[in-house]
Design a protein that fits this description.
This protein is an all-alpha fold. It has helices at 3-35, 38-51. The longest helix is centred in the middle third of the chain and has 33 residues, at 3-35.
Length: 57
């Protein structure tokens, strides 16, 4: 294997790593939120709003 081939292979792997990682995290979020009860999601969002100082009532 030549040095140029090794560099292009490394660049391809690096270029694909971020999209694959984001896709995996995104699908994980969709699957988890799809199986959790609505009240749990509401409570979590409510707590985040308070933690960031955003008034919600």
């Amino acid at each position: 294997m030549t040095t140029q081939t090794m560099k292009s292979t490394a660049a391809l792997r690096t270029g694909l790593l971020a999209p694959v990682l984001f896709l995996t995290i995104g699908l994980g979020i969709v699957v988890v939120t799809g199986h959790v009860q609505a009240s749990t999601l509401h409570d979590a969002a409510h707590d985040v709003r308070h933690a960031t100082g955003f008034p919600c009532h």
